[in-house]
Amino acid sequence: MTAVQRNAPIDPVKLDRLAEVAIKVGLQLRPGQDLLVTAPSVALPLVRRIAEHAYKAGAGIVTPFLADEAITLSRYRHGHDASFDRAANWLYEGMAKAFSANTARLAIVGDNPMLLSGEDPVKVARASKANSIAYQPALEKIVNFDTNWNIIAYPSPSWAKQVFPDVPEDVAVAKLADAIFAASRVDQDGAVAAWEKHNAVLRERTEWLNGQRFQALKYSGPGTDLTIGLADGHEWEGGASTAKNGITCNANIPTEEVFTTPHCRRVSGHVVSSKPLSYQGTLIDNIQVKFEEGRIVEARASRGEEVLKKVLDTDEGAARLGEVALVPHSSPISKSGLLFFNTLFDENAASHIALGQCYSKCFVNGDKLTPEQIAAQGGNKSLIHIDWMIGTAETDIDGVHADGRRVPVMRKGEWA
Amino acid sequence: MTAVQRNAPIDPVKLDRLAEVAIKVGLQLRPGQDLLVTAPSVALPLVRRIAEHAYKAGAGIVTPFLADEAITLSRYRHGHDASFDRAANWLYEGMAKAFSANTARLAIVGDNPMLLSGEDPVKVARASKANSIAYQPALEKIVNFDTNWNIIAYPSPSWAKQVFPDVPEDVAVAKLADAIFAASRVDQDGAVAAWEKHNAVLRERTEWLNGQRFQALKYSGPGTDLTIGLADGHEWEGGASTAKNGITCNANIPTEEVFTTPHCRRVSGHVVSSKPLSYQGTLIDNIQVKFEEGRIVEARASRGEEVLKKVLDTDEGAARLGEVALVPHSSPISKSGLLFFNTLFDENAASHIALGQCYSKCFVNGDKLTPEQIAAQGGNKSLIHIDWMIGTAETDIDGVHADGRRVPVMRKGEWA
Ligand SMILES: [Zn+2]
Ligand SMILES: [Zn+2]
Ligand SMILES: [Zn+2]
Ligand SMILES: [Zn+2]
């Protein structure tokens, strides 16, 4: 018997390869390690592939946790007012406990970036705050690399329709799947080897930058004349990095950036954004800001300016930088020409900076520094961490040494 | 535009009614209460309806936890040996914490009852034991009714194919859906009112039985001549019951039984099973046992006898009774003529007894008794609790008073 079947829009071979890369490269999961997987419910086919590769690698217990967009919306549509200040504390506490007990963490992203754009922004902000507070202890263990972790993406239909609004849903899913597979280097055989090679390239960049020990980076380009001081004892990171449990992981798949911690009191000048920023259902476009002594003192945007200003007001550190990252204009994600509305991809399309919290990992011996030492060395502290793109095909970047000597780092958006 | 669509096998109106009954009757969820929902991943359509009714009822946070059969099988097929002694302790501890913090609990059953029948029974037993140990603190809070809880069923395809092996899958799902909806009293309008009426009928039965204060029940029928002593201070339960948090819930939907605690040292005689028992992928059929002083001293089965004997050997209490339940032979589930391979349904098709752990709730002031007092009054203790059917259309049951006076309770399987 035979039946006419619509072609599945997501290539099962590449999907399986993505799962394999997540376990072998992203996490380098060790025999006996438990694994917590969070994912949108539609990503179940990928979660199943992940579980199989995890068990083959000797996983203890794989615990999948599926969130569902319809259930999230149900809360906004039908929930009583008091619901929006609540969070599942028992669950987040449990996660923190799991990470302390050497459980690895895999997050599959793929939610509709505009899911909450039609909901009451006050409720969205309240729910987000309640969640942030409850999640904080678990998140700290991730950000500080207590355990090995990894983020990958699944081409959910609702996300695909945002990236490709003009084509039917299954075509959009197929296109987004292809873009994810290409960016994640699983579009051809030998994906694990391709990642080793890519990690080596990124390591070469970070080693060169760490050897230079620049005091500042100087950006110039259309609308941009910016000096970003680097934190004392900063360290450049990129690609693979070793968690405190001794396991080397690739926290982001894809990743094209090398990044470090700017000095949060030594940034000055003007900069304009080179791509729109998608933030909690709002597009913020054509950002223009002026820094003085590390702080944004003027901010404008052609779209979403109010949301931007609210973000900058979150706390004292929200108007200062916590990350500076270099990405060549020719990066594969940049070349795709797509806006993904998702930081995992968009931050790898251009050199960028991030408002808010810095990474302690981006300091020499960062895991031994106290919060006070990090602050003294120029590390920023905030509840937020928002990456936004400033690199273009016209961007020149110089490294500035303590004696004022300047070394070309990037020319016309490419490594010099 | 129009398109030929296959009719959905599960009626969405009745599915929504089942969700409404679960929230309003099963849980009587209170405004501000959080809700933990566990379900097979295929039951997501029902979980979504549940979440909506929960939020409309004022739920705090609804946390769905979806398990997936393919991921479970993946562990057995690919997991290293050490995996089978592990459990997600952090998650079960979190659940116990949630129940202590007044979170309500909804379990949706619907897994393939034969899922693990092809897997290594030793691994199945190891994994099951590891899970039982990890889940114990949370389970105790459920069994002791610390919070309001409820179990309902979803017609999963893999389960439907077990119940209706001879029809195509979507027909099987439609048939199982209809059977679940009818048994759960959501096949017509006014389901909430129908449950109030049904609860009143069950309450009338328990009040009569509690007024009689029988010392024992005497069963006779083909192959059966059994005396079941009742525990000192036993209390009959059935339908709605009030949890320690003050909320009246219907823990099982459907439910047709009234039940209490037998005296675990005062059961004697012979009894045969009237329906096959489905236990962890094995069918145990035509059970014949002999009790002496509460303990099973002889046990046979035409099928699955080895599994039965292993079960009876689990611990000291596994060969003694922890529950005795009365269900008329004319119960709607009995009339359906179906074997569901699921206790939630099958135990409501006939009068039954359960091996193993008793319910503290089935004692007068049970929530104030210590485990030692419960044991002294005749309550049984075991890691297992397995219901099996003994009622038939020929079964007569008498209540026996302390003075030997006998009162007809059931005649030919119906209330006398
Ligand atoms: Zn970055
Ligand atoms: Zn960043
Ligand atoms: Zn029962
Ligand atoms: Zn029972």
UniProtKB/TrEMBL annotation, chains A, B:
SUPFAM superfamilies named in the record: Thermophilic metalloprotease-like
GO molecular function, one term: metallopeptidase activity
InterPro entries associated with the record: M29_Exopeptidase, M29_N-terminal, Peptidase_M29
Coiled-coil residues: none
Keyword Endoplasmic reticulum on entry: no
Keywords, ordered alphabetically: Aminopeptidase, Hydrolase, Metal-binding, Metalloprotease, Protease
Superkingdom of source: Bacteria
Key word NAD present: no
Cofactor field: Mg(2+); Zn(2+); Co(2+)
Gene3D superfamilies, per database record: Thermophilic metalloprotease (M29)
One biological process term in Gene Ontology: proteolysis
Similarity section: Belongs to the peptidase M29 family.
Name of the featured protein: Peptidase M29
Organism: Bradyrhizobium jicamae
